[in-house]
Design a protein that fits this description.
Order of helices and strands: EHEHEHEEHEEHEHHEHEEEHE
Number of domains: 2
Shape: elongated
Number of strands: 13
CATH topology of the largest domain: Rossmann fold
CATH class of the largest domain: Alpha Beta
Radius of gyration: 20 Å
CATH superfamily of the largest domain: HUPs
CATH architecture of the largest domain: 3-Layer(aba) Sandwich
Helix content: 40-55%
């Protein structure tokens, strides 16, 4: 079965922006677009008037508005819609597992405060088994971002985030734009002697060590995507801040998310959390082992 690009909509301007972004992505990938809306009828055990038919009409109207917008802009794109009889988190998490990409909307809060993902979006991003793209209502791919870079954050060894790099290289190749690979590093809290630091010292310091680690991680993907221009960017600083600064002229930001559990549920990690709330472009979160 051919996988689709999926957009989750709820009638908000942000979700309509996500549907539009998903339509562009589906067009680039030559895939169909699937627009979904989670609506589960849940009778309340309290004396309130509920209108099941009315709520169902609202749910259908949400899908219809998104479908009409996409059809008007991408008339050749194959589009299907479906109301999912499930809670939003469960429905969207299941969609992410079988989709090529899942797209969700993000509410804007302004340049100083960052952006609000919403509880549903955060839970889906933290638990999804496939790539999820977060889009704001003002994340249009117009000038100067129409030809802007795809930016990807890389950390760890060459094997640590291969899925993240693969997604980023494919995105850059589809758009015909350069890929900026960013690796942030910082001095250890206590500069103790170790085998890795000895190797770094022998190479002339920590920065050359980090540059070589980035180069090694990129090597197999450069061979697979020889037409993608790659810019290596190694900076001293926190990963979140370095990536946020790199997002200023980016067309798409790609970050990894390792599954992390806590007493309050799954978490996405500090760098991904910072980028999702403050990046100035759509952000793709790709899970990796």
């Amino acid at each position: 079965m051919t996988r689709a690009v999926v957009a989750g909509v709820d009638g908000s301007p942000e979700s309509l922006a996500a549907a539009d972004w998903a339509a562009r992505e589906a067009t680039l990938r030559g895939l169909p677009l699937r627009i979904v809306h989670a609506w589960l009828w849940q009778p309340l055990d309290v004396p309130l008037v509920q209108d099941r038919d009315g709520e169902g009409q609202v749910a259908r109207a949400v899908l219809r508005a998104a479908e009409e917008q996409v059809n008007s802009r991408y008339p050749q794109l194959a589009v299907t819609t479906e109301i999912l009889p499930e809670t939003p988190v469960a429905a969207l998490t299941a969609e992410a597992e079988r989709a090529a990409v899942l797209c969700l909307g993000t509410r804007g809060h302004g340049a100083l405060l960052g952006f609000l993902l919403g509880s549903y979006g955060q839970q889906v991003l933290a638990s999804a088994k496939g790539p999820v793209v977060s889009v704001r209502a003002d994340d249009e791919e117009g000038a100067p971002r129409q030809n802007g870079e795809v930016v990807v954050g890389q950390q760890g060894s060459a094997e640590d985030n291969a899925d993240v790099l693969g997604f980023a290289f494919e995105a850059a190749a589809l758009r015909g734009v350069p890929l900026r690979a960013v690796r942030a590093w910082s001095l250890p809290p206590v500069y103790t002697w170790s085998a890795s630091l000895a190797l770094a010292d022998a190479a002339g310091g920590l920065e050359p060590f980090e540059r070589e680690a980035l180069r090694a991680a990129l090597a197999p993907w450069r061979e697979r995507y020889p037409d993608v221009k790659v810019l290596e960017d190694v900076q001293l600083g926190s990963a979140g801040q370095v990536l946020i600064e790199a997002s200023a002229q980016a067309r798409l930001m790609v970050v990894g998310r390792r599954a992390r559990r806590s007493p309050i549920g799954p978490r996405i990690g500090s760098a991904a959390h910072a980028v999702l709330h403050h990046a100035r472009c759509p952000v793709a979160v790709v899970p990796h082992p």
